[in-house]
Structure formats: structure tokens, C-alpha cells
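haha ok so turns out i had the wrong file open the whole time. this is the CORRECT one, sorry everyone. sequence first:
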Amino acid sequence: MTDGNSKLWALVITVIITLSMSIGIVWYNHSNKGLEFKYEIYDKVEDFEPPPVDNKSENIPPSKDDSRANVKRVAIIIDDLGWNKESADALLNIDAPICFAILPHLPFSKIIADEAGLKHRDVLLHLPMEPYGYPHKDPGIKPLTDDMNKNDIEALIKDYISEIPHIVGINNHMGSKFTENERGMRYVMEILKDKNLFFIDSFTTPKSLAYQTAKASGVKTARRQVFLDNEEDEEYIKGQIEKLIIIAQRDNFAIGIGHPHPQTINVLQKMVPLMKENGIEIVPVSELVN
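then structure:
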């Protein structure tokens, strides 16, 4: 091989190695971005509101302080935690008992649950359930599906419960299809009743049977009224929190669900003090289950 050919081959090999490294870096960054932002996968349904409730029929427990029985109470749940610790830290630094709904088997699931539990925040297992469009519409973590039998459902739930310390209840991650399945939801409630856990119906479909099935099974339950951040826009989120306040003033309580988007955290940091100043008591969601 001539000296010229050797130099040419050396150049070709160098170009190939450089391109391979560049492709690898792009793939790595894209993969990590997918992991970091996977919490954005959730049912973006229209923000339909459950029907107004009758406090007597719903039997919502009164405020623990009898002198403040007429205080309007709001619970805020942040879903899809576990991918990113920074967002969880920012939520823990907000001076309000915001509830942490944590997905299992994620890089920071256990440590976030531990820190939230130590700060006396309600910790929920954010239980993946089958949405319409599955598997194309992927919850990111293996979900409960309509075709599972009782043993499959029980095994998966118990595995996920074991992954999240300090849990006091469960709410559904996605689940627009599974929560319409009365048989499947009944199996879920049997497990929750045995473990003395409550269920919050995220209400990702107007046909959800989760709330009714929980009540019929003797499981403490409640249902969200407002999704806070279907649009990742601070003005929109502010408007949704104002809507949550209006519902609380009407019904004496309201439950909102948001996600750890920077915009959501920014709005909560600004609005939590204002809510308190205006007579809204932010409470753990465990105070609002019946």
C-alpha cells in the first residue's frame, strides 16, 4: 500500500469513527431526554368536570378543627413523579401539603417517596392503567390491562406497592380504558381494601367506574375535579387553579391534579400563598376521601 493510500484510509477511518461517535451522542441525548420528560405521557382528555357533589351524600369528613368547619379545602396532587428529582425537590419546598403521586420502578421513585413521607406529605402509588389506544399510547410503565385475570392484577399491584414507601393511597395513571372495566376495578379495590389504602379516581374518562366501584367495595375514595395543566402555559394553569378555588367555594372542597412541569411548579409557588390569604386551606388529599 502506498503512502498516499495509507493516508486516505486513515482519513476514511477517522471520518467513520467521528460519525459513529456523533450518532452515539445524539442517540444518548435523545434517549435521556425521553427518560427525563416521560412524565408528560398521560391522558390529555378534555377537562370535563365531574358533576357537583352533595356533601351530605358524599359524607366528606369535616375539617379536623371544629372551629374551622366552614373552611374551603383544596387538595393538589402532582402525578408522574419518579423521573426527575429536581422537580420533586421544588415541590417539597412549597409550603403546602401537596400530594405526591409516584410511578414505580423509576430512577428516583423510592428516594422521592422517602423524602415526601419524611416531610409528612401524602404519598400515592400512581398506578399505570390501560388507556384507549394502548399500546400505541404507552403509559411508560407496564399497566393493568383489560385482559389480565385477578392473579395478574394482584401480582402487579403488590409489586408496585412494594416499590413505593410511605404510600397511603393510589390513583390511576392514564387508565381511560381500564377504569371503565367494572370487573378489573373490583379486583383492584379488593386489594386496596385489604391493605387499607384509599383510591383517588383521576377521572380520565367520563365513563370511569373507579369511584363507584371503590364506594361499593368499602374503599375510601374521592375524585379529581380539575386537571391543572393540560396546557403547559402559566396563564392557563393559573386559570385552572382559580377554577379549582371556585369549585371549593361551591362544594366546600376540591381536588386538582397537575404534573411536574416547570410552569406548574412556578404557578404553584406564586399562588399557594395567595390561596391561603383568601381563606383556602390546602390539605392532604387523605382528608378528602370518604
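The chain is about 45% helix and 15% strand.
again sry for the mixup
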